[in-house]
């Protein structure tokens, strides 16, 4: 049995098709190259329809009814003719309650689908989706997230008329996961469904957040991209980068000991760096009051020397890239790192705070 996806070449459709392929689920596609006369054939051996086709910004308003309502009527009629119940997942819009041509056409489509459900007890799943964002959404069309991500990543201007306007958003991967759960039989019949999680953000905050993503490449300070809306916005922003922006340089510092470079800074969890040292070179020779660090040797063999600044107690650790282990530096212990191998060492370093030259918390103390 196959899935029929209408609007398969659109934003949501592209993402759904990729997921269906990943899961090995067979499908037919209804695109702009098809006509309603193709529906009976496309419905053969179909176990579910995901009805995504629709007009958002046609040149003529009549197109709203022709596609959003008219195609839905043709789809429902084709299912009636089959005399077989074929569940429909329908991507309606939160604008279905608004007084505009697009919203009215979506509401008509909902009514047509509900009528089919009432007549033949066909399962329907109607989602009044708010703004959907994510990879492959067309910029400068009907998604402000796509427009901001594209324009800011390409150093183009954006227009914000009212920064206080609040948006409701859902993420494309969450939409696809919800649809897949229905296709795989994990959700029961329901005519009106809301998709979770949904997020609210003002237009001004959205614009500023995406600008921060761009600026993080020079400041090295990452936004909190690990969870929630910020994580999904960041992934979306990166999907709009042109290939020539897939990489960016970082500042390096070189002296007689080797090289040092900061790689990534966080707002509340410190920063990541790395350094090198030539054979026989010792780096460090200081202690911290509050700052803590973690070291990992990526190349070569090193000797860590520790000395407690009050008791004078000493301790030594020898580690190498062939024996991966984290070495921590507790406050109050002076520490130094010596390259005891026959090659340059490369060491990754995490500190629990961003380095501030005004309050470095790094006090020289020879061991």
Written description of the protein model:
The model has no long low-confidence stretch (mean pLDDT 95). Helix 1 (11-23) crosses helix 6 (172-183). The protein is an alpha/beta fold and 367 residues long. 30% of the residues lie in helices and 31% in strands. It is built from 8 helices and 21 strands. The strands form 4 sheets. Strands 10, 11, 12, 13, 15, 18 and 20 form a 7-stranded mixed beta sheet that branches. The chain has a 6-stranded parallel beta sheet with strand order 2-1-3-4-5-8, with helices on both faces. The chain has helices at residues 11-23, 39-42, 62-82, 101-120, 144-153, 172-183, 203-219, 228-239; strands at 2-6, 27-30, 46-51, 88-93, 124-129, 131-133, 166-171, 190-193, 199-202, 221-222, 252-255, 258-266, 271-277, 282-287, 293-299, 301-308, 314-320, 327-329, 333-339, 345-351, 363-364. It folds into 3 domains: 2-129, NAD(P)-binding Rossmann-like Domain (Rossmann fold, 3-Layer(aba) Sandwich), CATH 3.40.50.720; 133-170 and 199-248, 3-Layer(aba) Sandwich (Rossmann fold); 252-364, Jelly Rolls, CATH 2.60.120.
| Structural class by SSE content | alpha/beta
The first-level CATH class of the largest domain is given as Alpha Beta
Considering the protein shown, what is the CATH homologous superfamily of the largest domain? NAD(P)-binding Rossmann-like Domain
> What is the mean pLDDT?
95
